[in-house]
Amino acid sequence: MSSTSRRGWLAVILLLATAASARAQSFGFPWWRDAQFQRDLSLTSDQATRIDNVFQSTISLLRQKRQELDEQEAELSRLIAANADEAAVVRQVDKVEGIRASLNKHRTLMLLRMRQVLSPDQRVKLNKLYEERQKDQKKENDKRRPDNKQGREE
User: Fold this and answer.
1) Whole-angstrom Cα distance, residue 9 to residue 2?
2) pTM greater than the 0.85 cutoff
3) What 8-state DSSP symbol labels residue 146?
4) N or C: which end of the chain has fewer CB within 10 A?
5) pLDDT level of residue 120 (50, 70, 90 thresholds)
6) Does an H or E element contain 9, and which?
7) Contact 22, 128 (CB under 8 A)
8) From the DSSP assignment, how many helices (H) and strands (E) are in the chain?
9) What is the mean pLDDT of residues 16-25?
10) Is residue 1 part of a domain?
11) What per-residue confidence (pLDDT) applies to 133?
């Protein structure tokens, strides 16, 4: 394998590792504003402000992309319901997936930039908080499922 190929593969692996770590900041709410998270992470007010600036500078673009995605998905559904020719559907699928990829790219970059504000120790703590939250949410979802006998009285 040439050194260029190795560097290419290394870049891909590094990108995937970064993206996987970045998802740990996707709590679904502005965690950097939450007093408990600030305490748990020893987040300084400067860090919280910097993270909020990253969020604020990106959120309008993400909302715009989301709206565009919703509109194009609706158009795709309309084409399918109208039994449009396959070429038209393929063009629309390409458009939808291009927008989805752009949305995901911008979101991932936002999360990466937020993560870069944190120290290595804070990143580890954030990942642990994310894992705990995921476990708690899974337990809650399992309790709510009607087919789950543990969550029901018998």
Assistant:
1) 11
2) no
3) T
4) C
5) very high
6) helix 3-22
7) no
8) 5, 0
9) 42
10) no
11) 86
